[in-house]
Write a structure and sequence with these properties.
heterodimer; A: 115 residues; mainly beta; seven-stranded mixed sheet; four-stranded antiparallel sheet; 0% helix; 54% strand; B: 116 residues; six-stranded mixed sheet; 53% strand
């Protein structure tokens, strides 16, 4: 398996524009997480899904943020409209709760810069 | 509530000296415990894991951790620090599906600096 795949790796956008971050989890994993990491706030859980269903989105900062998981192999995190304070590295992780290897696997992250 | 506490936000050691990064957890369940490492501008990489087998767990790059249930601890150690060990380290607990909690709980991280 190629691991958790995120795209794009880097995104630079202007304030007010819509940004869509993408994640492909590892096949067979039943949980998917979106995290945001900044120097000031560290690693923050934004939302997580179980079997494609959003379970807890209490970490989503504002209504400008939305996440979807239309199927087991794809998730998006959308910011509309984007603001400079959204600049951060966004990580996607997937995890399964059964079997031996129950650790979470992380993507390489998307570095978002909003100017 | 389930929680993970990393007792030091920053640890600084000299190259060649031992490393100790402390982690305590609180869980009503039998947890699986992990340490992840994040080098600057990189993603998170699994360093080692405890999943109720041997309590002393060996990981990559010479790191190891010991699960002590009586102390609810899972401290990370390395006998001799190398410059390349400078990174952010996260202690993580995963919980069973039926726990009713967020299945992945992170500590706030410990930044390890290694001085030449």
């Amino acid at each position: 398996d190629a691991g958790v795949i995120q795209s794009p790796r880097h995104e630079v956008t202007e304030m007010g524009q819509e940004v869509t971050l993408r994640c492909k989890p590892i096949s067979g994993h039943d949980y998917l997480f979106w995290y945001r990491q900044t120097m000031m706030r560290g690693l923050e859980l934004l939302i997580y899904f179980n079997n494609n269903v959003p379970i807890d989105d209490s970490g989503m900062p504002e209504d400008r943020f939305s996440a979807k998981m239309p199927n087991a192999s794809f998730s998006t995190l959308k910011i509309q409209p984007s603001e400079p304070r959204d600049s951060a590295v966004y990580f996607c992780a997937s995890h399964r709760t059964t079997g031996v290897n129950t650790e979470a696997f992380f993507g390489q992250g998307t570095r978002l810069t909003v100017v | 509530a389930q929680s993970v506490t990393q007792l030091d936000s920053h640890v600084s050691v000299s190259e060649g000296t031992p490393v100790l990064l402390r982690c305590n957890y609180s869980s009503s369940y039998s947890p699986s415990l992990f340490w992840y490492v994040q080098h600057p501008n990189k993603g998170l990489q699994l360093l080692l894991k405890y999943t109720s087998a041997a309590t002393l767990v060996k990981g990559i790059n010479g790191f190891e951790a010991e699960f002590k249930k009586s102390e609810t601890s899972f401290h990370l150690t390395k006998p001799s620090a190398h410059m390349s060990d400078a990174a952010e380290y996260f202690c993580v607990v995963t919980l069973p599906r039926n726990s009713g909690n967020t299945p992945l709980v992170f500590g706030k991280g410990t930044r390890l600096s290694v001085i030449a």
